[in-house]
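Protocol step 4 of 5: obtain the predicted structure for the target chain.
Materials: sequence only (see below). No template structures provided, no constraints applied. The aim of this step is simply to have a reference model before the mutagenesis design in step 5. Sequence pasted as it appears in the construct record:
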Amino acid sequence: MNEQQTKSISKFLSLILRHQPEVIGITLDENGWTDVDELIAKMNAKGHRISFDQLEEVVITNDKQRFAFSEDYNKIRASQGHSVNISLGLDPQEPPEYLYHGTVAKFLDSIHKEGLQRMSRQHLHLSRDRETAVKVGSRRGAPVILNINSGAMHKDGFLFYLSDNGVWLTDHVPAKYINF
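Step 4 output (structure tokens):
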């Protein structure tokens, strides 16, 4: 499979495993898992030709580890970023003292007023390192990196979760915890 095919399959998997499983007629369980064989069959029926080996290649080679197989490889889910209501089954974790968020300048006025919002997703995504935040912010233009005082947030009772692929998740970051 070439890089273009891998990227195309990855984008389609993101759509159906994070946002719109109904596009191909699958269902996600309460933790976001769906049956691998059913996923492959329904993708093929909708013209998105894929084998198990190709699916495994997409999951393993995804630079952000967006997807995960169950231990027995019978189920698959997105690691985070869902807009559908599921529970990733993550326990609250103590975050590092500082986390980072990549954005662009056009959102700064709103962030100054309202802080960071999760918008249509279940959680707000934060990065452990500046480099990852730069990559995230760069998707929409010239990145602006916000330094989040996550240690103080945690001490003040805000919950944080660490996804399987290392993304830190929380529900909201009030402006007072953001270093602009």
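Step 4 remarks: The chain has two domains: 3-78, 99-179. The first strand starts at residue 34 and ends at 35.
Proceed to step 5.
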